[in-house]
Structure formats: C-alpha cells, structure tokens
C-alpha cells in the first residue's frame, strides 16, 4: 500500500497525551475517545506569516493531482478508528461536505444507508475527477482547487457536517476555506479535520513540516478559531501504539480537530 512519507516523528508529545488522559470524558460525543478542549491563543491576533504557507513545490496543484491515486494515506488501524469516530459524530440525516475528497471517504455504514434512502446527501470536493467517480458514497462531485478559489459550490449549503481527512496541511488558504464551511453549516453543525503525520512534503505548507504533532493540532485549532468557530475540541483516535503495544504493532497516529458552529 502506498502511503506518503512521514513528515515528522510518529510520537505524540507527552504534554498532549497527558492532557488527553485528563479529559477522557468529553462533555459531548464522541466521549469514547480522549479529548482536550482547544484554548484560544495569540490574543486574537493572527500569528502566522505568508511564508508559513509557502510550499516546496509551488506549481499548480492540478498538475500534481492529475495522476489517479486509488490508495489510502493512513493505515488500516487508523482508518478503522476514523470510521468509529464518524459513526459517533456524523448525522443520520442531512447534508455532509467531504473536503479534499478522493475515492473513499471512510464513512460508517449508517451514512451509506442514509444515502441509499435519500436521507443524506454527500458532496465531495477533490482534485481528481476519476478518484471522485470511484467514491460511491458521494451524491454530488465537484472538482476544484481550493488553493486557487476557496469558495464552496452552491450545493454545499445548509450543511450538518463537513469532513477533511489528512489534507488540511495542503491548504494555503485554510481560514478562508473554513470560513466558507462555517457560513454554510447549520447552527450546531460540525467540521471534523482528521490529522496524521504523513504527507506529501513538497505540497504541505512550510510551517507544517517544521513543527511537531502537538503544535500542528494547536495550529489547526487556530484556523478554526479565526474562521469563527468557538466550540473546538481535539480528539485522539490513535496514539500510534497499535493493539499489541510492541514496535511491530505500531500504527499511524490519528487525531481529529472538531469545530462546532454555535447558534
């Protein structure tokens, strides 16, 4: 199975692990995963520079994503955890937007059942038409480069949820995109940003490659805060230790930074 190379250490910082353990009982679903609330930083002043969002490869993204890649970018154990999280978090009815979508969205069976009944509509936005065509969960498919134009399509409105899997690190205008998501969500709607430590380093933003996992999670929390979200939590789905505890059982670490629209 092809996976992007590691962009940093596989280990979560001890401070974030301890913080997650202190917050094992989240005040809202999915309480089965350790969570810690994001706390706003920087005194309301945007802390990042344009250089933070430069990339090693500044060429147009439609060239890089032109080859069809029917592969997964996190391992099976991490995918299983993500699907469990989605089963607890995604609605059984309504509208879902899958940002930076591909040939599979890792949604649970309840979403597939909702789609088949007509109770759920899923809009997938991605960079490769052939990959989107392979994704059977999607009810509408939009090929778009969000780094060129961060606006969402007309059909992405009155959203109950939005997802983005291990791709927030590729967005050069993340707050603009997330402001669009915030505007299109219904009150109480949520965005779920799944994060691991693998990426295509030439296309990830420069700052992402210079910081560790704990700082990345805080940075994504900053994105959501400056996009207008106020209820923000960080969930640890997998710390990378795997089921057996030994080195050979290790798996990809996985977190979700979730933002909820107030109202």
Describe the structure.
With 263 residues, the chain is of the alpha/beta class. The chain has helices at residues 14-22, 61-64, 76-89, 109-117, 129-134, 174-184, 206-210, 213-226, and strands at residues 35-37, 94-99, 120-126, 140-143, 159-165, 185-195, 231-238, 254-260. The chain has an 8-stranded mixed beta sheet with strand order 1-7-8-6-5-2-3-4, sandwiched between helices. Strand 3, helix 5 and strand 4 (140-143) form a beta-alpha-beta unit. Residues 5-28 have low confidence and may be disordered.
Q: Largest sheet, if any?
A: 8 strands, mixed
Number of helices: 8
Helix content: 25-40%
**Gross geometry:** globular
Overall SS class:
alpha/beta
Q: Between the first and last Cα atoms, what is the distance in angstroms?
A: 43 Å
- The parts where pLDDT drops under 50 for at least 5 residues are 5-28
Taking Cα atoms only, what radius of gyration do you get, to the nearest Å? 17 Å
Please give the number of β-strands.
8
Q: Please write the string of helix (H) and strand (E) elements.
A: HEHHEHEHEEHEHHEE
**Residue-averaged pLDDT, rounded?**
84
Enumerate the strands of the largest sheet in spatial order, edge to edge or round the barrel: 1-7-8-6-5-2-3-4
Q: What keyword list fits this structure?
A:
263 residues; alpha/beta; eight-stranded mixed β-sheet; globular
Compose a concise summary of this entry.
With 263 residues, the protein is an alpha/beta fold.
What secondary-structure arrangement, pairings included, does this model have?
Layout: H1 14-22, E1 35-37, H2 61-64, H3 76-89, E2 94-99, H4 109-117, E3 120-126, H5 129-134, E4 140-143, E5 159-165, H6 174-184, E6 185-195, H7 206-210, H8 213-226, E7 231-238, E8 254-260
Parallel strand pairs: 2-3, 2-5, 3-4, 5-6
Antiparallel strand pairs: 1-7, 6-8, 7-8
């Amino acid at each position: 199975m092809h996976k992007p190379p590691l962009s940093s250490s596989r280990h979560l910082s001890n401070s974030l692990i301890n913080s997650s353990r202190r917050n094992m009982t989240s005040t809202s679903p999915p309480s089965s995963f350790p969570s810690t609330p994001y706390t706003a930083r920087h005194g309301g002043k945007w802390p990042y520079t344009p250089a933070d969002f430069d990339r090693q490869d500044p060429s147009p993204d439609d060239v890089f994503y032109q080859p069809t890649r029917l592969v997964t970018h996190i391992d099976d154990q991490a995918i299983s955890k993500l699907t469990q999280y989605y089963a607890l978090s995604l609605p059984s009815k309504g509208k879902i937007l899958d940002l930076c979508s591909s040939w599979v969205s890792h949604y649970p069976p309840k979403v597939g059942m909702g789609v088949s009944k007509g109770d759920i509509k899923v809009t997938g936005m991605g960079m490769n038409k052939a990959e989107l065509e392979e994704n059977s969960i999607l009810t509408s498919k939009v090929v778009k480069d969000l780094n060129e134009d961060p606006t969402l399509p007309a059909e992405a409105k009155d959203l109950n949820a939005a997802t983005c899997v291990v791709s927030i690190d590729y967005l050069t205008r993340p707050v603009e995109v997330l402001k669009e998501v915030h505007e299109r969500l219904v009150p109480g709607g949520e965005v779920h940003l799944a994060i691991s430590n693998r990426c295509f380093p030439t296309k990830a933003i420069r700052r992402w490659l210079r910081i560790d996992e704990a700082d990345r999670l805080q940075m994504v929390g900053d994105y959501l805060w400056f996009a207008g979200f106020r209820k923000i939590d960080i969930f640890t789905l997998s710390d990378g230790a795997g089921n057996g505890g030994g080195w050979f059982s290790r798996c990809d670490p996985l977190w979700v930074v979730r933002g909820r629209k107030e109202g």
